[in-house]
Amino acid sequence: MSDDEFDQIFPLGEKNDAYAQYFTGQSYLAPLAAGSVPVSNVSFEPGCRNNWHIHHGTGGGDQILLCTAGSGWYQAEGEEPVSLEPGTVVRVPAGTKHWHGAKADSWFSHVALITPADDLRNEWLEPVTDEVYGRLPKAAVRP
Fold it and tell me: Which of 55, 119, 128, 140 is the least buried, fewest Cβ under 10 Å from its Cβ?
């Protein structure tokens, strides 16, 4: 599927160059709402994923992912990967080491927000290796 065929309800946005060092592959960022709880649409080309990372904050800092298009993965450290399809919602508690991104053969988009917190910050860690990513199923298992 090419990017002009990727059907989603929010804009694709611009290439996510500001955070490119924390992604394997190309991602796109479309800010949807500013303010105390910024909301963005993040889109991933097939095979694109972000590095392992942790959201920190005092009294909040959970990340919410609302999957809107395509097919992707979410994985918390020490847990099995979770298949993400449109309508899937994931709450990532602050302090959880995790990653998320597209499946190898699918574009993927999610709306992302982080709950308000004092001392809110991201800690970017190592990339998800090709070896680890390559062990994931290539596409969603459909009934």
Answer: 119
- pTM equals 0.90
**Pairing between strand 118-124 and 82-84?**
unpaired
Q: Report yes or no: 106 and 71 within 8 Å, Cβ to Cβ.
A: yes
Q: What 8-state DSSP symbol labels residue 140?
A: -
Give domain limits for the chain: 14-124
CATH number, domain 14-124: 2.60.120.10
- φ, ψ for residue 31 (rounded to 5)? -60, 130
Query: Averaged in consecutive runs of 10 residues, what is the pLDDT profile of the chain (143 residues)?
Result: 70 96 98 94 97 96 97 95 96 98 96 95 96 80 43
Sign of the alpha-carbon dihedral angle for 71, 133, 40, 1: negative
